[in-house]
């Protein structure tokens, strides 16, 4: 009886994994994702859709909305004619408990806080800086969650590739086990060979279940992060794509990165707050308007009068120095943070680009190794058919070829992830 091991069985492991990584197909199996209607036609989400969904589920998005509302309220406050809400004054006195001559005095007044020279413009500039900073923080927050989404998406791709390889390995070893049993019954092989083949098939089944469990866990984490049950549609990963190039093919402008923009706008806000402190050397002066009614005694007519006054608080060192010191400290911290952020972003981009180059070289090496070991497994298959090679040698060759295919598939995912991390380091959203 001929023992047939199709070359396709040796190669199918790599084919399944590569089709998954290159295609980014959605996973909708009952043991890895929520069940779908039989009539539904689910479409795998893009990374951009997943990032938007993940962002909308975060508390940072709510905080950004709150900052926008606070800035709008501050603008309304600045547009007022008064530096602070007006105050109402009222006083009354008589001699009821002393001479009881009927003397009475009542006074009512209003106090309007006035803007100091330049104070309103300084506060308006500070509010504008807060608005710009909140908008930049939203972009930086989206970028942060884009990094999480990219890591999760390529993690699913890696687990999917390993799961497909495990499925292909189970099918291949099961075919070998079935054919060996037939040859044992025909007397061509020993019973020990059947035991070995069956044990290898069972080991492959165990590895298959473990791979499926890891894939299910990755999908659960993805759903928790994005609220989407389907795996993402990832871009293809060509075997050879050359060096990664920054946008426009030029030098990376670190100032355009959302994190660097947040740091720069934080410095600008600190400067504007320092200007507010400089323009507010004292509490706002108050315009006073009072109406007074005096009654000299019983039977005498009341006398009314109107008074206008100004209350000017004095600015002292004990009041101004702590405020100015706090503003200067905030500016110094912001400048230091900006410098360190730009240095970190430049270093991250350089390391990410180097990682892409390394991953491309490793992928080419894994491709050649996989091709060599697949060819070796094919030659040993022919030798086994001719009765020149024992079964254990064939199983070892098949295991080595499968391991090489697995490494090749993993390296393709690693290259895709390295490129995604490089885009992340440049501050580019999907």
UniProtKB/TrEMBL annotation:
Which SUPFAM superfamilies has this protein been placed in? Outer membrane efflux proteins (OEP)
Would I find Coiled coil among this entry's keywords? yes
InterPro entries annotated for this entry?
MdtP/NodT-like, OMP_efflux
Matches recorded under Pfam families: OEP
Q: Which residues form the signal peptide?
A: 1-28
Homology family: Belongs to the outer membrane factor (OMF) (TC 1.B.17) family.
> Which PANTHER family has this protein been placed in?
OUTER MEMBRANE CATION EFFLUX PROTEIN
What is the protein name for this chain? Outer membrane protein TolC
Q: Which organism is it from?
A: Paenacidovorax caeni
């Amino acid at each position: 009886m001929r023992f047939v091991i199709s070359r396709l069985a040796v190669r199918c492991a790599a084919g399944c994994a590569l089709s998954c990584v290159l295609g980014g197909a959605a996973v909708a199996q009952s043991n890895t994702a929520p069940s779908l209607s039989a009539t539904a036609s689910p479409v795998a989400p893009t990374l951009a859709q997943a990032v938007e969904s993940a962002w909308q589920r975060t508390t940072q998005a709510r905080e950004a909305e709150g900052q926008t509302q606070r800035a709008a309220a501050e603008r309304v406050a600045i547009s007022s004619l008064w530096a602070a809400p007006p105050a109402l004054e009222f006083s009354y006195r008589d001699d009821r408990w002393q001479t009881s001559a009927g003397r009475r005095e009542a006074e009512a007044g209003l106090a309007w806080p006035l803007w100091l020279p330049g104070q309103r413009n300084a506060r308006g500039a500070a509010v504008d800086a807060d608005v710009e900073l909140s908008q930049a923080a939203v972009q930086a927050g989206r970028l942060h969650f884009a990094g999480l989404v990219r890591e999760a998406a390529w993690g699913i791709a890696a687990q999917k590739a390993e799961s497909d390889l495990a499925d292909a390995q189970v099918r291949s070893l099961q075919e070998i086990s079935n054919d060996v049993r037939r040859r044992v019954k025909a007397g061509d092989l020993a019973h020990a060979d059947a035991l070995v083949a069956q044990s290898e098939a069972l080991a492959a089944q165990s590895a298959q279940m473990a791979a499926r469990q890891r894939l299910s866990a990755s999908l659960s984490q993805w759903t928790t992060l994005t609220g989407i049950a389907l795996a993402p549609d990832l871009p293809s990963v060509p075997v050879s794509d050359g060096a990664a190039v920054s946008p426009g093919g030029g030098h990376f402008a670190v100032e355009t990165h959302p994190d660097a923009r947040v740091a720069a706008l934080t410095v600008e806000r600190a400067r504007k707050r320092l200007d507010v402190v400089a323009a507010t050397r004292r509490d706002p002066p108050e315009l006073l308007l009072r109406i007074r009614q005096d009654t000299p005694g019983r039977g005498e007519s009341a006398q009314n009068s109107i008074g206008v006054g100004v209350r000017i608080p004095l600015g002292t060192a004990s009041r101004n120095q702590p405020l100015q010191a706090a503003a200067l400290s905030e500016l110094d911290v912001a400048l230091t943070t900006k410098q360190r952020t730009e240095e970190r972003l430049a270093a991250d981009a350089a390391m990410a680009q180097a990682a892409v180059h390394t991953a491309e070289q490793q992928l080419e090496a894994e491709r050649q190794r996989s091709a060599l070991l697949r060819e070796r497994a094919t030659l040993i298959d022919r030798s086994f058919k001719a009765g020149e090679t024992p079964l254990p040698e064939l199983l070892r060759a098949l295991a080595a070829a499968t391991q090489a295919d697995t490494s090749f598939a993993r390296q393709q995912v690693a290259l895709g992830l390295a490129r995604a991390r490089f885009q992340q380091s440049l501050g580019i959203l999907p």
